[in-house]
Amino acid sequence: MSTHVPLGSAPSSFAITTRRPVAILMVVMAVCVFGWVSYQRLALDLMPDIAYPTLTVRTEYPGTAPEEVETLISRPLERELGIVPHLVRISSVSKAGQSDVILEFEWDTDMNSIVQDVREKVDRVWLPEEAKKPLLLRYDPSLDPIMRVGLHGPQDLYALRYLAEHEIKRELEKQEGVAAVKVKGGLEEEIHVALNERQIAIMGLDIGQINARLAANNVNMPGGNLREGQVEYLIRTLNEFQTIDEISELIIAQQGGADIHLRDIGEVYRSHKDREIVTRVNGGESIEIEIYKEADANIVEVAHLVRNALYGLPVQRAFVDQLQKEEEKKQAEEEGAGEEEEEEKGEEEEEEEGEKEKEEEEGAEKKEGEGDLQEEKRAAARQAIEFLKMTDFISFRLPEGAELEVLSDQSVFIQNSIDEVKSSAMLGGLMAVLVLFIFLRNVVHTLIIGLTIPISIVATFAPMYIFDVSLNIMSLGGLALGVGMLVDNSIVVLESIFRCREEGDDLIRATIRGTGEVGTAVFASTLTTIAVFFPIVFVEGVAGQVFGDMSLTVVFSLLASLCVALFFIPMLASRQLQEGDESLLQQLQKSDFLQLHALERARTAIGEKEKRLVERLLPVVLALPYLVYEMGQRLLLGIATLVAAALKLVWILIFELLWVLLKPVERFWLKPERTYQSRMNDWAESDHFTARRLTHWVWVVLLAVNVLFTGLLSAEIIPKEIFEGIEGFDPAWITQGLAGLTGLALAFAMQDFERVWSGIVGFGSPSALTRGMQGYWSWVGRSSRLVWKILKLPLFPLVLVYLIFRFLFQSVLRLVGIALHVALMLFGLVLVTALFLLGMVLLPLFLPLLFLFEKGFGLVQQAYPALLRGALRQRLAVVGLAMVGFLLCWYQLVPQLGSELIPQVHQAEFNLDISLPVGTPLEKTAEVTQRIEAVVQEQPEVERLATTVGTDMAASSSSQEGEHTSQVTIKMKEGATAAEEEALVRRLRGLLRDLPEVKIEVSHPALFSFKTPVEVEIRGYNLVTLRRLSQEAEEQLKTIPGLVDVKSSLQAGNPELQISYKRDRLAEFGLGLRNVAEMVRNKVQGRVATDFREKEQQIDVLVRLREADRLGLSELERLVINPRDEVPIRLSAVANIKVNEGPSEIRRIDQQRAALITANIQGIDLGTASVLINEELQDIEYPTGFGYFISGQNKEMETSMRSLYAALALAIFLVYIVMASQFESLVHPFVIMFTVPLALIGVIAVLFLWKIPLSIVVFIGMIMLAGIVVNNAIVLVDYINTLRRSGMEKIEAIVQAGSVRLRPILMTTMTTVLGLLPMALGLGEGAEIRTPMAITVIAGLSSSTVLTLVVIPVVYSLFDRRS
After folding, report:
1. What is the pLDDT of residue 731?
2. Distance set, CA 83 to CA 88, 105, 121, 964 (Å)
3. In terms of CB atoms within 10 Å, which end of the chain has fewer, N or C?
4. What pLDDT score was predicted for residue 756?
5. pLDDT of 518 higher than 90
6. How many C-alpha atoms does 1085 have within 13 Å on its Cβ side?
7. In this predicted structure, what is the pLDDT of residue 659?
């Protein structure tokens, strides 16, 4: 008895799939076209655009200690900025000469308005005059350089710096997408004026007077205009220094009638600026060039352009390589020629006499050779232009020995990561299609469902472009994640359609009813999956920012797959090319063109199961040569068809054009009832072009070509000289051979033409052209007056052109249709052959797999109804076991799972962040770093080192960087694994552990801006107590296993010479304290008085005391502070100078002083580390007003985890709401929600067994899982309700629904699982982020499916009390 629902109950909206197939096809094509266009325009980035809500206010106050910076800069700014809206945390770092106030805001804060608000408040703060204007720095990962390039060579650092600044930088800034190029390292030229303290004191000169004199005498300025008669002059003052000697000869003052020159009181010489940064490549000093991209530029494209500008295009590199090979060959020949030169010298003297005689003869030929000479010159000019073009790139123009080396390139990791995601998605899609084929055993059905994947993916790109979602590893990861899910809806719809066919419905009725029965369930299941992504909007922290693109991508792709499943798939399923119930494959197989006898023989041989395998395979092997013959025959047949159609079209056109002119003659030659026009119409409209006629016309045409070619040769229009180089060759052979071969080939190919190509070369009646001309003449003849006839006659050319153009347009369209027809059939031929050969190769592999699947799935189908009936008899026991399993996992296994924020991404690259005591000079830091480099270079895994010592205080520099810090970037050899990277890090830590006063931390290139994994804040006011507690806590943390690189921010500070001025003594001598302090600063630190222009450079002129006069404490005490007075007064007379040590920095968090202890973790998870740190720090006794807080990534993790727990609960709630609305019931959605804890059983068990810690990646997977796992239960419960509405008893309805839905449930689960399998394997770069999510979904979906088939029917029977 049939249990299906009447057709009238099916939603009429799905009838459009059978009534409007063309409209649906056009919509799908339009969506795919727009999707593809959008794909071409999508930006390509590593990570989504993350708006980090942080702002740094940086203020420089040169020459001040940390305590002064805190008092005068940091605290006033904190008080003013503490009231900015949406502020979460405010902290500051005050160190020598610099203050950084860091503001952290709520996520999704409008940073543009905040920046404006902060700027206004900063402007209201009174700061010392000597302090520079505060800078507002906003962190943005896109502001990091996309590429770093090292320039090194035998040249000095001045030359390399000049080359980088004035040639390489300018060339790179021209490239499209490059925003800026920054040059670091090397030596920047500076002119030093080193004054003699004794001389300026004797002569009573003030250093400020010298600075002013230099500036006043180095002037270029406009002076206005002057008119004299009809001439107007521009007045310019040109008095800039031209040479160093001019500066030395400058008159500073006059005393006693004598000029005092600058050279009399000091020395002027070229030097370099005080170095702030040193860069090295593989231990040798270099210049580092950083390339920054524009905000909306594509990183991969920009990096590609930069590489081409640096190293040339591939064709340019090949040209240069060829030049080098030719140069080497030439050098080798010159060396060989040098040895023979002496032997040939005597012979040359004898030949000179003979050459003189020849010169007279050559003179006569000179005029004839002038033309050749001009041609040689033009060729040489072309070669020179080609040479300049092919060598127009930077590395070719570098001086000898100089090299450019790429130190880092973000685009490589981005491209590799994205390529890996693409390959994972494609492999997952193929595996999903393979599962479909195994289940369906039907190529057409598999292809129909398989179309869902590419159509849905391409359609997804359009909304991605509209919503400004870039192509990055998260958005592409979302596509890869959804590949397996895209076919789920199509599977359910197609399975329902063919089940209705099996129940007796015709194809149209089955399509409408089958789609209608599952349409609402499919819509509800898709809506539940989409609904779980909505709560991600409320996820705080970086998790919501990072996974937003992934969520949108999955939503867009699932919506596209839903539309495809409900409209496009039914439309394809309802199509049939001819009457009858034959499938598309069966109809194509009837085509004579695709009937290859070789394949038929092979199939027959394989089907003879009574024979041995060798006997069956032998005919297959022997059939391969015949297969090649048949393929070649059909290829020639296709070419012959195109030739036949083209010749037919040409002949029709010639006939019609000529016959319009010869129309009157036809009356005298033919009977009216049978004209040539009627014969031509019959032939043109005929649907065949027989082999006899075709070969006849081909021979006629080829014979005509032969005659024409021979005639042209005879008339010497084609010069015979071009064939003279071939001895005994007759040019006539060309046409004769061509005619013969082509005729034979066409005759051979066309032997089956009428049988195979019947109905392809018909062009329709060409008489429309003649009828049009007849209509024109009739129109002219209808005019009664001769004047009108004469006026209409000039329109004849226009009418003729129009009719010919219309005929040509229609004929060309028909010819294009024939070409497409031929191409399609050839493609089908290749496809059929390829599939057969692929099947022959894979058959030995798939036969066992298909056999096992048939047996296994058959056993499951047989055992499942009995298992389900048994479970329904023991309902309480089944539910109890499921609850025990869930509670066991939750309370026993979850506490043992670790936790982390986001998995570390390994890029075979890491940094050694080196710090020495604050105050260490740059030279000492460089020396220590060089020893570390030597150790690193000895490691066999290391490919390249790039070192930066010091900092240039740029916007991107950290507040903790300075002359005492350095960073060594280590690039491992290609193919290095994460395990090898961790092993190298451990080894280096051991080798560098005992370096005195050196602290080394290991960091990795960050995909996200996170704090250090472990940060402990110890807060309190007194700096001495704070330092003691931080040192004690530091020692305690070093004892915790798994914590490495432990370091406190409160270290030994800068050694200071503290000057305390005596105000009474200054007043006694009539001196101002500020004036004296400025004079001391100008003498010791110096001041840039003016600049010196040389070519395009502006070189600073720095004035200060010579090094001998500012060497130490005694020299400082002897500084004269009243140069214009007769009696000199030393600094020691008005000030106390003592040596002291200040703090390295003063850190304030939420307007409290704090010490920050940072550490990395190794071998333990972040959650475990936080527990151990708490246990250790609780044993320390803290004075009143002091305490500790654990922050860093732990705090970010706690914030993200809290919001993720809330998002998971909200997702489950939304899923329930969607299902309750669908089922109009509160009980059935509750039954379906039991799948969520069933899924968590598998997730927790797999995470525990594979030792994967909980992270925001895993939680995002769980949130997705909440929407995915309910889909199978929705389909199952929906069909149970359908059967019960048709009158079936509850238990029978449950059992039958389970049996019917078993196959689609297993199919959808396996396609999703296998679609995610490539991602779960963790292959490729950036896989650490995607793998935990894929494993979570696979584990949860697998366990949920297995348990859903048993537990959900049991729960349904318990809660649904209807009989």
Report:
1. 57
2. 11, 12, 10, 35
3. N
4. 46
5. no
6. 11
7. 64
Q: Provide CB contacts within 8 A for 127, sequence distance 6+.
A: 59, 72, 73, 76, 134
Mean per-residue pLDDT for 62-67? 80
For residue 915, list its beta bridge partners.
965, 999
Q: Are 419 and 480 in contact (CB under 8 A)?
A: no
Residue 313 has pLDDT above 60, yes or no: yes
DSSP 713-735: HHTTSS-GGGGTTSTT--THHHH
Assigned token pair, 511: 């399509």
Cβ-based burial of 546 (10 A; exposed 0-12, middle 13-18, buried ≥19): buried
Whole-Å CA distances, 173 to 182, 288, 956, 1138: 10, 15, 20, 51
- What pTM value is reported for the model? 0.72
Tell me which residue of 147, 199, 425 sits closest to 1005, measured CA to CA: 147
Residue 1103 is encoded by which pair of tokens? 């004035």
Interval 722-747 mean pLDDT: 53
Taking CA atoms, 1246 is separated from 166, 1312, 1318, in Å, by 59, 18, 17
Calpha distance 1151→92 (Å, rounded): 8
Amino acid, res. 1262 = M
Adjacent-strand bridge partners of 1056: 1140
Asked whether the beta carbons of 18 and 571 are under 8 A apart, the reply is yes
Which residues, at least 6 apart from 307, have a Cβ–Cβ distance to it below 8 Å?
A: 406, 409
Burial zone of 1157 (CB within 10 Å; 0-12 exposed, 13-18 middle, 19+ buried): buried
pLDDT tens for 1240-1293 read 999 999 999 988 888 888 888 888 888 888 888 888 888 898 888 888 898 999
| pLDDT(677) > 50 | yes
**pLDDT of 942 over the 90 cut:** yes
Q: CA nearest 1033: which of 1184, 913, 1173?
A: 1173
Tens digit of each residue's pLDDT (9 = 90 or more) over 255-299: 877 889 999 999 999 998 888 899 999 888 999 999 988 766 778
Cα 616 to Cα 229, 837, 838, 1151: the distances in Å are 111, 15, 17, 87
Tell which residue, 772, 897, 952, 825, has the closest CA to residue 1245. 897
Distance CA 314, CA 308 (A): 8
Q: Regarding beta strands 189-195 and 1097-1105, do their DSSP bridges make them parallel or antiparallel, or are they unpaired?
A: parallel
pLDDT value of residue 580: 42
**Could you give the C-alpha distances from 1306 to 849, 857, 1300, in angstroms and in order?**
17, 10, 11
What are 228's strand-pairing partners?
A: 231
- Cα distances from 1185 to residues 75, 1023, 1191, in angstroms, run 19, 12, 19
pLDDT at 1193: 80
For residues 1147, 1152, 1155, 1157, the Cα torsion angle rounded to the nearest 10 degrees is -100
Task: Give CA–CA dist 439/429, Å, rounded.
Answer: 15
Give the pLDDT band of residue 405 (cuts 50, 70, 90).
very high
Buried/exposed 1111-1141: b ≥16 CB within 10 Å, e otherwise: eeeebbeebbbbbeeeeebebeebbeeeeee
> How does pLDDT run across 529-553, given as a tens digit for each residue?
888 877 776 777 677 777 788 888 8
Please, where are the H alpha helices in 992-1119? 1023-1038, 1063-1068, 1073-1084, 1113-1117
Helix (H, G, I), strand (E, B) or coil at 229: coil
Mean pLDDT of 1064-1080: 87
| Side-by-side strand order, sheet with 266-272 | 266-272, 189-195, 1097-1105, 1087-1094
Residues β-bridged to residue 264: none
Report the C-alpha gap between 964 and 401 in whole angstroms.
32
Q: Are strands 98-105 and 87-95 parallel, antiparallel or unpaired?
A: antiparallel
The dihedral built from the CA positions of residue 924, 929, 930 and 934, taken in this order, carries a sign that is positive
Q: How far apart are CA 242 and CA 470, in angstroms?
A: 54
Of 1191, 1172, 1196, the residue nearest 1043 (C-alpha): 1172
Q: Are 879 and 1351 in contact (CB under 8 A)?
A: yes
HEC string for 20-50: CHHHHHHHHHHHHHHHHHHHHHCCECCCCCC
